[in-house]
Design a protein that fits this description.
261 residues, alpha/beta, Aminopeptidase, 7-stranded mixed β-sheet, two-stranded antiparallel sheet, 33% helix, N-formylglutamate amidohydrolase
Length: 261
């Protein structure tokens, strides 16, 4: 039996990391008979195209396995969706998973957290700190595909910054300001902090481990670049979002050159 979580790590000479931990859609063969959801149902709650958005000239950690096999942004107890209240009311599995499957998945969770820590420790040794763009996307049309998006409740970009050390306040403000200087569809970008999400378990874990040595900014894009019900991507949109992040990264690098980190 192998319930291995598939991921890719790209190393660059940079203190920055781009994470896309919910991009994946793959389920290992051993688990497929237990999965009760269709591919479309799974895709709706995954974050497709975030790996492409995260394709930046910095370190990258991209997960190819679906969060419906193991959610690396949940604590160990909730990383496998055993109950509907853990998964947007969805019944993920047809039957109870064998205990040896669960144990293997939990071991994978712990192993990958260790691997991430090892890489971040290397970045600290090289640069003295790290900054993570923890890239996600979220649904704003929960009722139907024709639903009108409540823009007041659903910003185009939600920055989850809540758990970071106060040391990074200036850097976070710089990121927000950088987004606000740019445009989407020829309009000023609505970017706000901690409205929809504050940062998940992985961000909290990393910050707890490293404190002021690292900053994790969870960047949640509203799924305006795709049809969130079918998974169909709108032509050219992913490239636009990727370029947004490249521009923001450039601004943040200039900011870091001006300050003593």
């Amino acid at each position: 039996m192998s319930l291995e979580i598939l991921y890719q790590i790209k190393n660059e000479e940079s203190p920055f990391w781009a994470f896309a931990i919910h991009d994946g859609h793959q389920i290992c063969e051993e688990l497929i008979p237990y999965i009760a959801l269709t591919d479309t149902e799974r895709l709706r709650e995954e974050d497709p195209y975030t790996a492409a958005i995260a394709d930046l000239p910095i370190n990258q950690f991209i997960v190819d396995t679906s969060r419906f096999q193991l959610d690396l942004n949940r604590d160990l107890e909730n990383a496998v969706y055993l109950h509907p209240d853990q998964a947007w009311g969805l019944n993920v599995f047809r039957a109870n998973l064998p205990s040896n499957y669960l144990l293997e998945l939990y071991r994978e969770h712990q192993s990958i957290y260790y691997i991430i820590e090892r890489h971040l420790s290397t970045t600290i040794k090289k640069f003295g700190y790290f900054i993570i763009f923890d890239i996600h996307s979220y649904n704003a049309k929960r009722k139907s595909t024709s639903e009108e998006v409540d823009e007041q409740a659903n910003p185009q970009i939600n920055l989850g910054t809540y758990y970071n050390h106060e040391k990074w306040r200036g850097l976070i403000d710089e990121m927000s300001a950088s987004f606000q200087k740019l445009k989407l569809d020829n309009k000023k970008i609505d970017v706000r902090e901690n409205v929809k999400f504050k940062g998940g378990n992985l961000a909290q874990h990393i910050i707890n481990q490293y404190g002021e040595l690292g900053c994790v900014i969870s960047i949640e894009f509203r799924k305006d670049f795709m049809d969130e019900w079918t998974g169909k991507v709108y032509p050219g949109k992913v490239e636009v979002y990727n370029q947004l992040l490249k521009n923001v990264l450039q601004s943040m690098n200039l900011y870091l050159q001006k300050i003593q980190v």
